Each structure stands twice: as structure tokens, then as C-alpha cells.
Amino acid sequence: MSQHGAAGGGRHPGELGAALRSWRERIAPEDVGLPAGRRRRAAGLRREELARLAGMSPDYVVRLEQGRATSPSSQILAALARALRLGAEERRHLFVLAGRREPGSGEAPAELAPSVLRLLDRMEDSPVSVYDAGWTLVAWNRLYAALSGGDLSTLAERERNVVWCHFTGLPTRVRHTAEQQERFERAVVGDLRTACARYPRDAGLHALSADLRRASARFTELWDSHAVGTHTADSKTLHHPDTGPLDLDCDVLEAPGGGHHVVVYTAAPGTEAAEKLRLLGVIGTQNLTGPTAAERSASPDRDPMRTGE
Predict the structure, then answer these.
(1) CATH match of 13-97 with 1.10.3670.10
(2) In DSSP terms, which residues pair with 140 in a beta bridge?
(3) pLDDT per residue over 195-229, tens digit each?
(4) Domain-by-domain residue ranges, the chain?
(5) Helices 74-83 + 47-54 axis angle, to 10
(6) Own/partner pairs, 176-185, CB within 8 angstroms, 24+ separation
(7) What is the pLDDT of residues 130-160, one digit of tens each?
(8) Architecture of domain 114-298 in CATH?
(9) Which of 22, 225, 238, 255 has the most C-beta neighbours closer than 10 Å?
(10) What is the rounded distance in angstroms from the CA atom of residue 100 to the CA atom of residue 93?
């Protein structure tokens, strides 16, 4: 599909609905870590799958596509742009069609660079995930979904936030040594502080830091001490129920344009972890294309890793 260009001002609910359908239908479910399923009558994401990825109700997506919801908020539009993997021009066009002004400076960028999305699609041998400026998981490839052990699109936004999960004690498959934990905590708190200063008008970032101060004494201690650091590289041990523990190297890259972190997990060649990762690429993706998303989210033993700390 050709890239949409910018248009004039004003609301265009019919065109907005058509654009959303077109963008939704061009995304293969497996490219965003969802099961392909066996009963798909058309290519692309279903409305309920887009709704999960964007964190809204399926009924609202239906009303948007049918032109019955004519005033989506900037937050809704940003979530749709992220879920639909829109490039910068497409994102601008989405805001134009909705009659909204795209958020300017002072707010963390929501759109991902097309090159990052291509990276996710093409790096099949390594788990890759992408986080926004506040360390909320926003995109991932199939192997990362397999490593995480669940349908990540079913998690609430805070359940996909690395900092929130760590400091509030939510379940995780990541295990840190004492030294790794100290290094990790200082780095992510420093990252969040830097993001809040860099994007002073971003309400989500400042709400996250305020909520963390209320929820965690350790976070408050590090925040008040002006802890500095950047989460750039480390080693992690992740426990997967099918393969057992995997000792992996974790490298954090800055996405083009800033505002997003790309996390790549790798294992040294010839190691046990490398073999386990290769096996996970087979059995994990098979599992992801087996049960439907609804069946997996309803399973009582669903145990997502939450986030890749």
C-alpha cells in the first residue's frame, strides 16, 4: 500500500475509517506476535486484535471504522498509530483525518521509525522488543513473544512497563544478581528522570514517575538521590517453562529519532543458551500459532514474562 500523504484540516470520519481499515488489513498478525489462526477469511489484523494492541475496546474500533466515532482523542490516535506501525507521514495524516493537531515538542514521540519496524520483522533469530521513552513495551517480534510466553497485547499498559513491573514486584521471568539489580535499578530510574526532563509536557511520563514514588520506597530513594545511569547493556537470566533458564546478553539501542529503546537479546555462539534460543524459535512460534488469542488469554496458567527488563 502506498504511503498516505498529508491532507487539509477538519474532520473526515469516512476517510478516517477507510484509512484505519486499510492500515489494519496490511499487517500480518504474526508480525506483531499474534497467532495467525486457522479461520481467517481475510488478511491482516481483526478489529479485536487492533483494539488489544491499542488498548481500547473492539466496539470503539468498529465505530471509528464506520465513521460513528468522530472525535478520537490525541491519546487514542497515538495508540492507534503505534499499533498500526504507522510511519511519520502516515501518523500525521491520521491526525489530520481526525481533525487533531499532532502533539508537538515537549511530548515523547509515539511513532516508530519504519527502519525499526523492518528490524523487528527481519531479525528472526533474536528476540527483539521496543520500548517508549518511559520503558513501556510498544512493539516486538515473534521470537520475543515466544520468549515472553504469552500474548503480550492482552497486558495492560502498566503491565508492559519495565520500571513499574520491577519496582512494584509484578511477576517476571528475569532473574538479576544483586550487582545486576543495583545496576539495572539505577539505570532505569536515571533513564526515566532524563525522559521527564527531555519531555516536560508529557503527562504520561510524569504520571508514571509520580505513581512510582507513591508505590515504591526504593524507587523514591533512587529518584531523590538523583541516580544517574543509562540502561545500555547487561546479561540476563530468563526462565522459560519449556527450555529452562537462558543466560542471554541484552543490548539496548537508541531508535532513530530518539524516544524509543530497541532491546536485542542474544546468546554466545555454541553455548547451551544459543541452542535453547534456537529451539524456542521453533516450539515457541508453533505454540503462538496454535491456540487462538482468546483461548490463550483465558488460560488459567498464562504466565507472561511481563516485560524484558
Answers:
(1) no
(2) 129
(3) 888 888 888 999 999 999 999 999 999 999 887 66
(4) 13-97, 114-298
(5) 120
(6) 176/236, 176/309, 180/234, 180/235, 180/236, 183/229, 183/234, 184/231, 184/234, 184/309, 185/218, 185/222, 185/227
(7) 999 999 999 998 889 888 876 788 888 999 9
(8) 2-Layer Sandwich (3.30)
(9) 238
(10) 10
Nearest-angstrom CA–CA distance, 227 and 211: 18
Answer yes or no: is pLDDT of 4 > 50: no
- Pick the closest to residue 143 from 299, 279, 295, 27 (CA basis): 279
Residues 252 and 187 sit within 8 Å (Cβ to Cβ): no
* Length of the chain in terms of residues written: 309
Residue 275 makes CB contacts below 8 A (sequence gap 6+) with none
For residue 301, is it left (φ>0), alpha (ψ between -120 and 50) or beta?
alpha
**Least confident span in 98-102, 172-176, 265-269, 298-302:** 298-302
According to the model, what pLDDT value does residue 3 have? 30
DSSP run (H or E) holding 263: strand 261-266
